[in-house]
Amino acid sequence: MATKTKTTKITSVRKGDIYETNSGQLIEVTNGRLQDDAEHGASFEGRTIEFNLETGNPNRSKTTDRFYLDELAKKLTKKDYEEWVEIGRREAEAMADATAPPTETEPAKPATKKPAKTRQPKTDGKLSQLDAAVKVLSESKVSMTTKAMIDAMGTKGYWTSPGGKTPAQTLYSALLREIQNKGKDARIVKVDRGQFALKK
Question: pTM here?
């Protein structure tokens, strides 16, 4: 017999609190005083928060709207919100990296980087970072963040960072480049903010 997961129903809000709606939108409460809207239920005033991938910062709407309590899925803690912002920043950096035009000095770089790329599989005796990510996604059957992929690669022995400080961000850029450059032939798809899955 299947058991239902219990969700805490939100019955009140406070000014300044940030909530995620059932559709995944972030709402900041601007006025926590509830107003009864008859059959629609209790509503409050708030404004939307969206991440601007061009500036790398979250934007709060200048106008306030009314939102219903039953639209809210969960309240975000400070840590939850900071994590949301961090994912957005990584995505903005990766997008900028993936779409940046090549510089004049780039043609000289492959000559110095090629030995490192050919040595890496010999050192690890395993897969490239991108191939390891594809393998991890194929085994997990669910979408994953790049950090979760890096952790899984290390645990399973598929790939370990040769000393880079931000392997998750490097992988994020590589995944976006594959999606952008290979289009329908890409092996992975981006399914949500910071989430990737194997293409079916």
Answer: 0.53
